[in-house]
Amino acid sequence: MSLGSFFFIFILLPLVTPDCPSPCRCAINIVDCMSTSLTDGTIPLSFSSSTEKLFLNNNYLTFIPKGLFDNLHNLQAVYLRGNPWECTCNILYLRSWLQWQDNRTLYRDVVCSTPAHLQGRIITYLSEDEIISTCQSWYCGVALVAQICLFVFVLVQAILLLLVVFYICRFQRIAKEARRTMVDVYENMDLWESARKNSID
């Protein structure tokens, strides 16, 4: 960015517009969020549709929310350098937007910080396969965790089922023994009663 552009910004910054998103500074058609410690969770979700220049450089952004630039039809340039861009699934929107820009040389300093095998690569020139491969790796990890959780769940269910069957069988055995004991008691009582009658006779 030229010295003249910086001078132009600082002259106009005092003319703050009412819809300027926090913590940015705004002038006519310019939104300056440079060095405001923006993160993925604090970046404004929208900007004025009249925005022509947007400064997001020197923050802590790892991706741009999907659709953030779509309604900025007057946008001429976005300054993005100095952010720790994470070139995984979430970077696909930014890459797509950059590839539609006429002046790609403006974005040669927008490079990946992670993952390690893409570190230093210019986001504009990343292939979709390179990014999707990181997505697949992430999904594989999630799928593995899901499968392990499912296996543990099924195992717990099987153990509970075995315990239920065990206690049902045990209860049936105890009930059977109790019935046999009662039958023996009644038989002994009958024998005792018969013996008592015989002794009386």
In short:
With 201 residues, this protein is an alpha/beta fold. The protein has three helices and six strands. The radius of gyration is 37 Å and the shape is rod-shaped.
Tell me what the structure shows.
With 201 residues, the protein is of the alpha/beta class. It has 2 domains: 25-134, Ribonuclease Inhibitor (Leucine-rich repeat, LRR (right-handed beta-alpha superhelix), Alpha-Beta Horseshoe), CATH 3.80.10; 137-183. It has 3 helices and 6 strands; from the N terminus they run αβββββαβα. The protein has helices at residues 3-12, 92-99, 128-200; strands at 25-27, 30-32, 53-55, 77-79, 85-86, 112-114. A 4-stranded mixed β-sheet has the order 1-2-3-4, with no helix packed on it. Helix 2 (92-99) links the parallel strand 5 and strand 6 (112-114). The longest helix has 73 residues, at 128-200. The protein is rod-shaped and about 125 Å long. The termini are far apart. It is a single-pass membrane protein. The chain crosses the membrane at residues 144-169. Residues 83-134 form the LRRCT domain. It is found in: Membrane.
Please name the defining characteristics of this protein.
LRR_dom_sf; membrane; alpha/beta; transmembrane; GPIb-IX-V_Complex; 201 residues; 4-stranded mixed β-sheet; rod-shaped; transmembrane helix; Leucine-rich repeat, LRR (right-handed beta-alpha superhelix)
